[in-house]
């Protein structure tokens, strides 16, 4: 058994340490599929999936958001799942894909960054954090090849550069920086279409929140796997802001207010379109 002071054990990476010393404690994403029957693999693929996540930059930081719904085939398996997680004081990660491995990867990533900071006495740079996450996604490749995909979006505030940054990933662990906005998951295409129309580089935080929520609502309208705001159950998308003051949760009351304003505006526009011609002439 390795000692924690063995020179062969990675010192600053908790993920590598765990993989080398106690691989049995690795998350579900490290399950070996050798020996499993096709029926067992199919059952794994039917596990709940998280759906739409997105991120966008604004003047002074970056926003990351996700809906709250998880699906299991054509059924809703959960309406309260969390897809956006704090990574450290200045960054957050959102996960789309198979829910179990996604959640475990996000939590392990937070531990990884904390472990590094405690051992090295300083936090990783934002680029370093993005690279760490890339390594973890790459470790999930055998599972991804079987259909158990984990796809994150990582955002953070670069203290040195004084700006928010967005990083996206592919299933092989490839890491790519986005300059403006990005969305992935089952409703990602619809969310990107909305952000493409509404995005401006000089947006304020309030404007960014409105655009992000509008994108989630549009995705929910077009994609059956994405959950929009649920005023009956009191469930709303999760939104976090990475800025100079650190990572902050956007209060649910604020999210509810913005969602209500978007829906009211759309209802008024729909009513105007459907208004009978006789009523319009009478008003004239």
Can you walk me through this structure?
The chain is α+β, with helices and mostly antiparallel strands and 284 residues long. It has one domain: Glutamine Phosphoribosylpyrophosphate, subunit 1, domain 1 (4-Layer Sandwich). The chain is 40% helix and 24% strand. A hairpin with a 2-residue loop joins strand 4 and strand 5 (75-78). Helix 3 (99-120) packs across helix 4 (126-139), helix 6 packs antiparallel against helix 7 and helix 7 (205-222) packs across helix 8 (252-274). The longest helix has 23 residues, at 252-274. The chain is globular. The model is unreliable at 1-9 and 28-33 (pLDDT under 50).
Feature tags:
5-stranded antiparallel beta sheet, alpha+beta, globular, 8-stranded antiparallel beta sheet, Glutamine Phosphoribosylpyrophosphate, subunit 1, domain 1, disordered N terminus, 9 helices, 284 residues
Query: Could you list the spans in which at least 5 consecutive residues all have pLDDT below 50?
Result: 1-9, 28-33
CATH topology: Glutamine Phosphoribosylpyrophosphate, subunit 1, domain 1
Distance between the termini: 86 Å
> How much helix, percentage-wise, in residues?
40-55%
Q: Helices and strands: which structural class? A: alpha+beta
At CATH's second level, what is the architecture? 4-Layer Sandwich
CATH class: Alpha Beta
Structure summary, number of beta strands: 13
- Summarize the main sheet: 8 strands, antiparallel
Which band does the percent of strand residues land in? 15-25%
Fourth CATH level, the homologous superfamily: Aminohydrolase, N-terminal nucleophile (Ntn) domain
Tell me the radius of gyration.
21 Å
What is the string of SSEs from the N terminus onward? Answer: HHEEEEEEEHHHEEEEHHEEHH
What overall form do the CA principal axes indicate?
globular
Mean pLDDT rating: 84
């Amino acid at each position: 058994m390795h000692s924690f002071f063995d020179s062969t054990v990675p010192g600053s990476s908790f993920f590598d340490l765990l993989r080398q010393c106690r691989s049995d404690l690795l998350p579900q994403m490290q399950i070996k599929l050798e020996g499993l029957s096709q029926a067992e693999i199919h059952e794994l693929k039917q596990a709940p999936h998280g759906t739409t996540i997105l991120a966008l930059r604004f003047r002074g930081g970056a926003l990351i958001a996700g809906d709250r719904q998880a699906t299991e085939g054509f059924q809703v398996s959960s309406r309260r799942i969390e897809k956006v997680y704090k990574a450290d004081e200045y960054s957050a990660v959102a996960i789309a894909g198979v829910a179990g491995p996604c959640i475990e990867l996000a939590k392990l990533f937070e531990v990884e960054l904390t472990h590094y900071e405690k051992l090295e006495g300083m936090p990783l740079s934002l680029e370093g954090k993005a690279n760490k996450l890339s390594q973890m996604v790459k470790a999930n490749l055998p599972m991804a090849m079987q259909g158990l995909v984990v796809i994150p979006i990582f955002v953070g505030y670069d203290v040195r550069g004084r700006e928010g940054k967005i990083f996206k990933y592919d299933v092989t662990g490839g890491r790519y920086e986005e300059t403006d906005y990005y969305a992935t998951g089952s409703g990602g295409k619809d969310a990107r279409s909305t952000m493409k129309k509404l995005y401006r580089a000089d947006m304020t935080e309030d404007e960014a929140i409105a655009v992000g929520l509008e994108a989630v609502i549009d995705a929910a309208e077009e994609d059956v796997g994405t959950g929009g705001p649920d005023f009956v159950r009191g469930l709303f998308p999760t939104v976090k802001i990475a800025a100079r003051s650190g990572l902050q949760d956007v209060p649910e009351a604020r999210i509810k207010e913005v969602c209500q304003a978007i829906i009211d505006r759309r209802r008024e526009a729909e009513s105007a379109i459907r208004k009978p011609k006789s009523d319009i002439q009478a008003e004239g």
